[in-house]
Amino acid sequence: MLISLAVDFRHADVATRERFHLSEERLTQLYRTARNDTVREAALITTCNRTELYAWVDGEETGAVQRAVHRLALRWMRSRTDGEELLQAATQRSGYDAARHVVRIAAGLESQVLGDAQILGQLKAAYMRASRGHVTGPVLHRLFETALRAGKRVATETALTAGRQSVGAEAAITAAQRFGNLASARCVVVGAGKTGARAAKQLVRLGARDLVIVNRTLPRAEELAGFVHGRTALLEAVHVEAAMADVVIVATGSEVPVLLAAPLQAARAACAATGYPLLLMDLSVPRNIDPRTAAVAGVTLLDLDTLQASVQHAEELRRDAVPMAEAICEAEVEAFLAWVATIPAREAIRPLREALQDVAKREVAYVFKNDEVAERAASRIVAKLLAGPMAALRRAAQRGESLDAQAMMLLEMFTADPAPSSYPVPGTPTPRSTPAVPPPSGGAARPTPVSSSRPATPARSLSPEQTA
Asked: Which residues are catalytic?
């Protein structure tokens, strides 16, 4: 069963979200310990507004699933007490609901800014990170592939992502609304990543002429500054640059605040700027601006939570595209559920597929003397041979029947005489025998099919009935 634990902006404020945020080091540790006998695959999504853990677990019994959830929470937080607090703050989903949610995230339907164009790249990066951690498998690969495809379809087939659709752009618009004409304002953007870049570009569109890009490294800052015709500064100068600014937007990946109250107050005093208003906007999780800066004279501090009200108007402009975007998402989710429903059939027929593919590869390699050609041809041949049997097994699984009898019959029909081929494979010193195929029951056990029956819970699950 597919399960998820989510801490997002809809159910947790920014202070709670940053508490459960995972650094790169902690994420690596989580991936090292996440998998076990029950949890087969895992992947964590982290954006400025959410941290969500997805996992594929064996079985659908309520007790087994809850044990897996608790174990994942413990691995996430590393202590039982913190794990219990995570479970209280997190939203738990399973089966259909979990699959639908991640697809909607990719489409921008679950973003703080409806149709957020950055979310698709963040989702892809999260999955690539999980893949490098060797904790994903066929189910999550298919799930994220489905989600990314849905996101691309929504972007190209609907108007959901039209116009302003990122937190960075909305922050710039809020600055213009609060400050007025940006042509005479000094604007500072801290962070040259995607969010910072979108904020900087939107500031320029709104008339900003004096723009400073502050970043930890100069090359990336210089690239963005060249695009927006601004200048650059290193992070060490952030307090001085902020003291002389009218608007500061901070969006970095730092785990600690980069703009502190005391240094900012001292810099404003040194620059004789204490009598001028300063708008600070923090778009980071964890927060990158010390909350105590709000107490500095003349300073107004906005974070992601306080920005939420300012993005409502922009959402109204894109709401007309929501029904079509949701229809695309539902179609993609149903396709994913149909694929999941075939897992028991694929597992039942896997030994036969491997045996047939080995024989086909040997025969084709003997004729063409090319292993690569043989591999591709064998895969196509076997796929065509097994299309009918796969359909029959899938129908049997949907009816809730045991697949053992059908799988045994197929094995007997196709591997009655598993004698080794007399044809040598090019590049192999000695002929090798066709591998023995273990029977589906008795003797060596075949892999246990992944359960896909509907659980006796209100939440919809990844079940064959979903796709009947």
From this structure: 48
